[in-house]
Amino acid sequence: MRRLRLLPLLIVLAIASGCATHHNMSKQEKFLEAAPRSILIVPVVNKSVDVTAADYMLSTITIPLAERGYYVFPINAVKRVLEDDGLSDSSMVHSASTVKLASLFGADAVLYVSINQWDAKYMVTTTQVTVGINYQIRSGKTGEVLWKNSEKVVYAPKSTGGGLPGLIVGAIKAAVTKAAPNYMPLAHQVNDKALNMYPGSGLPLGPYAQDQVR
Question: What is the architecture, at CATH level 2, of domain 2-196?
Fold first, then answer.
């Protein structure tokens, strides 16, 4: 009798699980249909107050994208070609025709990256460092959005404790972190979350990662 009572619940859970899997896979449906082999990474749009954020972020995205199995155009060469074409500003690049950008390099798709957060907030005994990024890949043939994701990573070291001496040490460490926060580990983490969470919101493996599990 108890088994019969549990049967409807098991059926509901099975259906819900199937729907969740289908929903996750549908996010990548257009991308899988387009099956791009090469991806052009254009200059990063920086919406934070840190003027160095865009260059740092751009330097962290090439390797993880290549490791997903796609040919990635060298970022320095891309920057020079875009500048020669009158596209020296990242905002201008992001508003330009995706098809035109792709045609300059023969790319199958174009990756747009925007920085929403790249900041360090001082909180007396600790400093909270945050990196928040938007990603979007568009078709080089049609300009259609094939894949998009948004991720954020926050780092806030815990207080060391130890009464007044501990508070003083914590305040000093927080001040040092605020003066020179290390964003690079967080940039690597946010890229890992955005690209590698597959199935789900991550990026499917490309044609040059045939030996990996899809």
Answer: 3-Layer(aba) Sandwich (3.40)
